[in-house]
Design brief:
Elements lengths: L3 H7 L2 H20 L7 H21 L10
Helix pairs in contact: 1-2
Length: 70
């Protein structure tokens, strides 16, 4: 997710996709491995926290606009 602000500056869809791929891998690992061993209340708090972080990241780093053909 640290790649997203740079993609907005450089308008690079490739870097945005790399950042999104890394974020997907981390979220899948979080839900598949890390949340399997914690209690219900902690799991709910984790879902809410991760959801809020994803929304904030999407707000500050939207998909870069497509480049115009030259």
């Amino acid at each position: 997710s640290t790649l997203f602000p740079y993609t907005t500056l450089f308008r690079s869809p490739y870097r945005w996709m790399v950042g999104m791929g890394l974020m997907v891998v981390v979220v899948v690992k979080l839900f598949a491995v890390d949340l399997s061993s914690i209690g219900t209340v902690a799991r709910i708090a984790s879902f809410i926290t991760v959801g809020l972080l994803l929304v904030i990241t999407g707000y500050f780093a939207p998909l870069p606009p497509k480049r115009e053909a030259a």
